[in-house]
C-alpha cells in the first residue's frame, strides 16, 4: 500500500457524519480538463505512490497529459478487484493452487499465495442448451450441467474455502457482467487500511473481455487474460501506457423503431472504422443524460467488439437511480454521490474536456440493424438484410448454382422428425434463434420489447417455424421476475422461447446440438444454415458446428427471425404469415410501441426484485451446498480427473531465471491470414471423437456424450493443448483449401498433413522450436488465456504478425512467447515467405542486459538454401513486460517475488 504522498493528497471526506480517508484529486494542479477515465487512473496513482514503481513523475505525466501525443509513458494501474467467469476463472484458481505447491518447493509459505484484492467468480459459462422448447428445460439443463461439471465445481468450492478474499457465485444465478452491475460493483469502494476506512473509485479487471459492461456504471475496468488477472489478484499492478482517449459525443434520442442493440451495432461499426484499439472511449455531451443505465451497460459491453480498452460513462443521477433500483444501501448511494462530486468525477455536460479524438452520433439517426455473418462490426441495415444475405451466401455454398426461382443458391431438403413434424430445409434457414449473452439480457427495454412482440405475434396467430431451436438464457433471475409480473411469459413460451438457463449459453458456443434429424440433413447436404442471437460474438465456428452463418440482432428481432425461419427474408415486403381473417401480417404490425415498453418497465420492475434475487447469493442452492468439498491449504489433485489437472508451468523451475536466448532452426507451425481470433486459436465449443482432444478423452474412459466443451475443460492442460489451433474454421495457409486444426509436419518425409498437436509433439521430440506467421489483428476476440498457454505449451517460441489485439499480445508475453511484428507495410506475402522455410531470430539476447531491443533480425532459409531477412519489431511494450519475458512468464515472475520475500 501507499507509503508516499508527494502531493499532500491524503484527506478526509465526511458523508453524513461518517469519515472516509480519500486522496484528493484537486491536490494536483490543472486536472479539470482531464477525461473522467484518466482522473480515475490519477487517483489510483496518488493512492498507490511508493516512490519506486509509482512516483511523482508518473502522477505529473498523467496530470500534464497531452491529448494529441502518442502514448509513451508507462504507468502501473492497481485494480480494486478482480472478476472472473468459470471458463477463464478455473485455470486461474488451478494456477494459484499450483503456485502454492511451487512456493512450498522453493522454501516459501504456501498461504502467502492469496488474492490481495477481492476476487469474485460467477459460474455462468457452463450451462448448455441440451433441452429447449419446454417447461422442464431450465431444470434439466441445470441437472446436466452439474453432472458434467461436478469436478470443476468441487474444485471451485475448495478454492472458496482455501483462499481469502475469493468468493464464488454458484451456477444458475446469472451472467457475470450482469451480476457485476446489479450486485458486485461498488462504484465507490471502501476498505480498511491501517485502521482507517478508505474510499476510492471501484475499478476492476476481469477474465472476460466483456468486463467493460461495468463501464456503463462509471466503473473503470476491462478484460485481461487470465494470466494477468492472476497477477492482479496477487498484488501485481497492471502495466499500461497512458492511453489516448476518444471522446464520443451523444445527442438526440433513439427513434421508435430502433433499440439499444441497434445503437450498439452502429457505434461498433463507427468505432471499428475509426480505429480505437488500445484507446479509451468516453461518452460525453447532453445526450448522455438521455441514455438509460441499461443502454450504457449495453454500449460498454461491446467495447471489445469495437476494439477499445474501455468505453466509459461518467457518474451522474442516472447512475445513482440505478444503484438505488438494484438495492444498494442508502449509505453506499450517499457515498457514491458525495465522493464523485468532491473528486470532480460527477458528469457535467457543460464542461468541455480534452480528448485525443472526437466522434459524434445523433441517436435519432439510428435504424434497425443486424450484424454478420461472421463479425460484430459487419453491420447490415435491416432493410438491406435479404439482399446482403443473397450476396454473402455465395461464400458458404461452394459450387451450388443460383436457382432461378429463388434468386440464390437453393437446396430444398425434406426432413421428417420423429415427432411427426415435416418440413423442407434450405440454405439460409434459421436453425437457432437465441436470446442470450450479457450484452442484451441485462436490458429491460429490449427484453420486454421481445416479450411484447411475442404477445402481438401470438395474438395475430403467428407461429415459430418448426426447424428453429428457440431459447432464452437471461442475464439474471430478475428478468424472469419481470416477465412473470408483466404477465408476458406465456406468450414467449407459446412461441417456444422457454427459459433454458441463466448464463452465456449460445453466445459462448453452448447452443447445444441441433435436433438429430436437422443436424444430419445439414451435414449430409452441406447446407449453409444460420443462427440469430442477441449476443456480441458471431465468429466462425463459434456458435454451433453445424451452423456456418451467424447474425447478431436485438431480442425482438431474434423472435422475428424465428417467425420468418430464414435469413432470406425482407421484413418490409415479406409477410410473416396471415391472421384469422386471412390478412398478411408484417413485422411493423406486431412491433411493440416504445411507450408501451416503457410503461411495462415502470410497472413491472422494482427494488424488491433485486434485493430478493441476490439474497444469500454466495451460498447457492441445495445442489451447490451438497457438493463434496475437499479441505486444506493445498489441493489434492486427482490423477484420474479429466477436468482439473496440475499444469506443468513450474516443473523444474529455479529460483533465478536462465538468460533468454536467440531462436534458431525454427519451423513454421501455422501460417495464418488476417483477423485470426482467440476462438480460432483456442475454441471454446464442442469437439468430435476423431480430434486429438476427443481421442485423449476416449483413451481416458470418457464417453462421447460426456465430452462437454473445450471451455469447460480449461482446468485440464492435456485437453487444452490438443485443442489449440483446432477450430474447425481455422485456415492454415501451409495447406491448400483445408479448414481445421491441421498443418504440415516437416519432421516427416514429404511433410505430410497432420493434426497441429501431433506435429508439435514430433517437433518437440526433435528439439525443433516453432514460430507462427500471421496477418493483421492477430488474437482479436475473447481474452482467452489458453490461446497463449496452448501456443506456449505446443513449443511456439515466437509469433510474427502484422498487428495484434491488445490482450493476446500481452498474454503471449505472459507465457514467455515473443510477439514480433512485420516491418510497417510488409507481410509474409510481400516478403515472399511460404512458411516452408527454417527461421532464426537474433538480437533477443539484448534483453539480458536489462534493455529491450526495438527490432530483432529474422532470417528465413528456404528449402533451396536461399535466404531472406528482415527487421521485426519487438512488441514488448513496457519494462514490466520485459521482466515477465525474462522470467519465462508472468506467473514465474510473481512466484519468484513471493518466494524471495
TrEMBL record:
One of the protein's GO biological processes: tricarboxylic acid cycle
EC number: 4.2.1.3
UniProt keyword annotation of Metal-binding present: yes
Cofactor requirements of the protein: [4Fe-4S] cluster
Keyword field: 4Fe-4S, Iron, Iron-sulfur, Lyase, Metal-binding, RNA-binding, Tricarboxylic acid cycle
Domain Aconitase/3-isopropylmalate dehydratase large subunit alpha/beta/alpha: 65-565
Example GO molecular function: RNA binding
SUPFAM superfamilies: Aconitase iron-sulfur domain, LeuD/IlvD-like
InterPro entries cross-referenced by the UniProt entry: AcnA_IRP_Swivel, Acnase/IPM_dHydase_lsu_aba_1/3, Acoase/IPM_deHydtase_lsu_aba, Aconitase/3IPM_dehydase_swvl, Aconitase/IRP2, Aconitase_4Fe-4S_BS, Aconitase_4Fe-4S_dom, AconitaseA/IPMdHydase_ssu_swvl
Chain ranges of the Aconitase A/isopropylmalate dehydratase small subunit swivel domain: 695-824
Source taxon at top rank: Bacteria
Pathway info: Carbohydrate metabolism; tricarboxylic acid cycle; isocitrate from oxaloacetate: step 2/2
Catalytic activity: citrate = D-threo-isocitrate
Pfam short name (any one): Aconitase_C
NCBIfam families reported for this sequence: aconitase_1, PRK09277.1, PRK12881.1
Role description: Catalyzes the isomerization of citrate to isocitrate via cis-aconitate.
Family of the protein in this entry: Belongs to the aconitase/IPM isomerase family.
Protein's name in the database: Aconitate hydratase
The organism of origin for this protein: Neomicrococcus lactis
Amino acid at each position: 500500500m501507499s507509503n508516499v504522498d508527494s502531493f499532500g493528497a491524503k484527506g478526509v471526506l465526511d458523508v453524513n457524519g461518517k469519515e472516509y480517508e480519500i486522496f484528493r484529486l484537486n491536490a494536483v494542479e490543472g486536472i479539470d480538463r482531464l477525461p473522467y477515465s484518466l482522473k480515475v487512473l490519477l487517483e489510483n496513482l496518488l493512492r498507490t505512490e511508493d516512490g519506486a514503481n509509482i512516483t511523482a513523475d508518473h502522477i505529473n505525466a498523467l496530470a500534464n497529459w497531452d491529448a494529441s501525443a502518442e502514448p509513451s509513458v508507462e504507468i502501473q494501474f492497481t485494480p480494486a478487484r478482480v472478476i472472473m467467469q468459470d471458463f477463464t476463472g478455473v485455470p486461474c484458481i488451478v494456477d494459484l493452487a499450483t503456485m502454492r505447491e511451487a512456493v512450498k518447493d522453493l522454501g516459501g509459505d504456501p498461504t502467502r499465495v492469496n488474492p490481495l484484492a477481492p476476487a469474485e467468480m460467477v459460474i455462468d459459462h457452463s450451462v448448455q442448451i441440451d433441452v429447449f422448447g419446454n417447461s422442464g428445460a431450465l431444470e434439466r439443463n441445470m441437472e446436466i450441467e452439474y453432472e458434467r461439471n461436478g469436478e470443476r465445481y468441487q474444485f471451485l468450492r475448495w478454492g472458496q474455502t482455501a483462499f481469502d478474499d475469493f468468493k464464488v457465485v454458484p451456477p444458475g444465478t446469472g451472467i457475470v457482467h450482469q451480476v457485476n452491475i446489479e450486485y458486485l460493483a461498488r462504484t465507490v469502494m471502501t476498505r480498511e487500511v491501517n485502521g482507517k476506512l478508505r474510499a476510492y473509485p471501484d475499478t476492476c479487471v476481469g477474465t472476460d473481455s466483456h468486463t467493460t459492461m461495468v463501464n456503463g456504471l462509471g466503473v473503470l475496468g476491462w478484460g485481461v487474460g487470465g494470466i494477468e488477472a492472476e497477477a492482479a489478484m496477487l498484488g501485481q499492478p497492471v502495466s499500461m501506457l497512458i492511453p489516448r482517449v476518444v471522446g464520443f459525443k451523444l445527442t438526440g434520442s433513439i427513434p421508435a423503431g430502433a433499440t439499444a442493440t441497434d445503437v450498439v451495432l452502429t457505434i461498433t461499426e463507427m468505432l471499428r472504422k475509426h480505429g480505437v484499439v488500445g484507446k479509451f472511449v468516453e461518452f460525453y455531451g447532453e445526450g448522455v443524460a438521455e441514455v438509460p443505465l441499461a443502454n450504457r451497460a449495453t454500449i460498454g459491453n461491446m467495447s471489445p467488439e469495437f476494439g477499445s480498452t474501455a468505453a466509459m460513462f461518467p457518474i451522474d443521477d442516472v447512475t445513482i437511480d440505478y444503484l438505488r433500483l438494484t438495492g444498494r444501501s442508502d449509505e453506499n448511494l450517499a457515498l457514491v454521490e458525495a465522493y464523485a462530486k468532491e473528486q470532480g468525477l460527477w458528469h457535467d455536460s457543460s464542461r468541455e474536456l480534452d480528448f485525443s479524438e472526437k466522434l459524434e452520433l445523433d441517436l435519432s439517426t439510428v435504424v434497425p440493424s443486424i450484424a454478420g455473418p461472421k463479425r460484430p462490426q459487419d453491420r447490415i441495415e435491416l432493410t438491406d438484410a435479404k439482399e446482403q444475405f443473397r450476396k454473402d451466401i455465395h461464400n458458404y455454398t461452394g459450387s451450388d448454382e443460383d436457382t432461378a426461382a429463388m434468386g440464390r443458391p437453393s437446396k430444398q431438403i425434406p426432413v421428417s422428425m420423429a415427432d411427426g413434424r415435416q418440413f423442407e430445409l434450405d440454405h439460409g434457414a434459421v436453425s437457432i434463434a437465441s436470446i442470450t449473452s450479457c450484452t442484451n439480457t441485462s436490458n429491460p427495454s429490449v427484453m420486454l420489447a421481445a416479450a411484447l412482440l411475442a404477445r402481438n405475434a401470438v395474438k395475430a396467430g403467428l407461429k415459430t417455424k418448426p426447424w428453429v431451436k428457440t431459447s432464452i438464457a437471461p442475464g439474471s433471475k430478475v428478468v424472469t421476475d419481470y416477465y412473470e409480473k408483466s404477465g408476458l411469459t406465456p406468450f414467449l413460451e407459446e412461441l417456444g422461447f422457454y427459459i433454458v438457463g441463466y448464463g452465456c449459453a449460445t453466445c459462448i458456443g453452448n447452443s447445444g446440438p441441433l435436433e438429430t434429424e436437422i443436424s444430419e440433413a445439414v451435414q449430409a447436404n452441406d447446407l449453409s444454415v444460420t443462427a440469430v442471437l442477441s449476443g456480441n460474438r458471431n465468429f466462425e465456428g463459434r456458435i454451433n458446428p453445424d451452423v456456418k452463418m451467424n447474425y447478431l440482432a436485438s431480442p425482438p428481432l431474434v423472435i422475428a427471425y424465428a417467425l420468418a425461419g430464414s435469413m432470406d427474408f425482407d421484413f418490409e415486403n415479406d409477410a410473416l404469415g396471415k391472421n384469422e381473417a386471412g390478412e398478411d401480417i408484417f413485422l411493423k404490425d406486431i412491433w411493440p410501441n416504445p411507450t408501451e415498453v416503457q410503461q411495462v418497465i415502470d410497472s413491472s420492475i422494482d427494488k424488491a426484485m433485486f434485493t430478493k434475487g441476490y439474497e444469500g447469493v454466495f451460498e447457492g442452492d441445495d445442489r451447490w451446498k451438497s457438493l463434496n468439498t475437499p479441505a486444506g491449504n493445498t489441493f489434492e489433485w486427482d490423477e484420474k480427473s479429466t477436468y482439473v489437472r496440475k499444469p506443468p508451468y513450474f516443473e523444474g523451475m529455479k529460483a533465478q531465471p536462465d538468460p533468454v536466448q536467440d531462436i534458431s532452426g525454427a519451423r513454421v507451425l501455422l501460417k495464418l491470414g488476417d483477423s485470426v481470433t482467440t476462438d480460432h486459436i483456442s475454441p471454446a465449443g464442442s469437439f468430435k471423437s476423431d480430434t486429438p482432444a476427443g481421442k485423449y478423452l476416449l483413451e481416458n474412459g470418457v464417453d462421447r456424450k460426456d465430452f462437454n466443451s473445450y471451455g469447460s475443460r480449461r482446468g485440464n492442460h492435456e485437453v487444452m493443448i490438443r485443442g489449440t489451433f483446432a477450430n474447425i474454421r481455422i485456415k492454415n495457409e501451409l495447406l491448400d483449401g483445408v479448414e481445421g486444426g491441421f498443418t504440415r509436419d516437416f519432421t516427416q518425409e514429404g511433410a505430410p498433413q497432420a493434426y497441429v498437436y501431433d506435429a508439435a509433439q514430433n517437433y518437440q521430440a526433435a528439439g525443433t522450436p516453432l514460430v507462427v506467421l500471421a496477418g493483421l489483428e492477430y488474437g482479436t476476440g475473447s481474452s482467452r488465456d489458453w490461446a497463449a498457454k496452448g501456443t506456449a505449451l505446443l513449443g511456439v517460441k515466437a509469433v510474427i504478425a502484422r498487428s495484434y489485439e491488445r490482450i493476446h499480445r500481452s498474454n503471449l508475453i505472459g507465457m514467455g512467447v515473443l510477439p514480433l511484428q512485420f516491418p510497417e507495410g510488409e507481410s509474409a506475402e510481400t516478403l515472399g515467405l511460404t512458411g516452408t522455410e527454417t527461421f532464426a531470430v537474433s538480437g533477443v539476447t539484448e534483453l539480458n542486459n536489462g534493455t529491450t531491443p526495438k527490432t530483432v533480425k529474422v532470417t528465413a532459409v528456404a528449402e533451396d538454401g536461399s535466404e531472406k531477412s528482415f527487421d521485426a519489431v519487438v512488441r514488448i511494450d513496457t519494462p514490466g513486460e520485459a521482466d515477465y519475458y525474462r522470467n519465462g512468464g508472468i506467473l514465474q515472475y510473481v512466484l519468484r517475488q513471493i518466494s524471495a520475500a
